[in-house]
Amino acid sequence: MSTKTKVFFDTEFTGLHQKTTLISIGLVADSGQTFYAEFIDYDTSQIDEWLEKNVLENLSLSIIDNNASLDNWRLIGGTDRIRESLEIWLAQFEQVEMWSDCLSYDWVLFCQIFGHAFNIPKNIYYIPFDICTLFKARDIDPDTNREQFAGIENAEKKHNALHDAEVIKSCYYKLCF
């Protein structure tokens, strides 16, 4: 019998438009492992004042790590390097169920890391899930403040993809259990 691992993820990107590019990605498995990467090949011409202040100032890496353990990866690199590392990290799980928050852009950008939705690793279930739907199904305003709902006090890290993935995980567990 196979076990599905829930992986909660978030991305930061250069804007809400069709040609947006990834700035960072954060993933947190329900078993505790994390993956965080910052892209060096995003389109800098798309950076505006809001992104500079709210996203770029919350990037947390300054060096490239070698990641001796699968548990907590941290890296800076181009999309190819991040894709290769993400494939290794995701391979530790037999089956993966992906969860995000307002996932329309997140899922498309996640699939784009692999070049196409048909190229995502085979252990990832092809249907992603969204906690916004869980909020709505539980009769909670889907626009509720996630940090407050989850009881997370350190909201100044909002718009850091790894922090936001942790918040998504906390909201999921509060909504489901």
Report on the structure:
By secondary structure, this protein is an alpha/beta fold. It has a single domain, classed as 2-Layer Sandwich (Nucleotidyltransferase, domain 5), CATH 3.30.420. It is globular. The model has no long low-confidence stretch (mean pLDDT 92).
Which helices and strands appear, and what pairs or packs with what?
Elements: E1 4-13, E2 22-29, E3 34-39, H1 49-54, E4 72-77, H2 79-90, E5 95-100, H3 104-113, E6 129-130, H4 131-137, H5 146-150, H6 161-176
Structure in a nutshell:
The chain is an alpha/beta fold.
Write down the Rg.
Answer: 16 Å
> Which sheet architecture does the biggest sheet show?
6 strands, mixed
Helix content: 25-40%
Structural class comes to: alpha/beta
State the order of secondary-structure elements, H for helix, E for strand: EEEHEHEHEHHH
Mean pLDDT: 92
Query: What does the overall shape look like?
Result: globular
Counting DSSP E segments of at least 2 residues, the number of strands comes to 6
Q: Report the CATH C-level class.
A: Alpha Beta
CATH superfamily: Ribonuclease H-like superfamily/Ribonuclease H
User: What distance separates the N and C termini?
Assistant: 24 Å
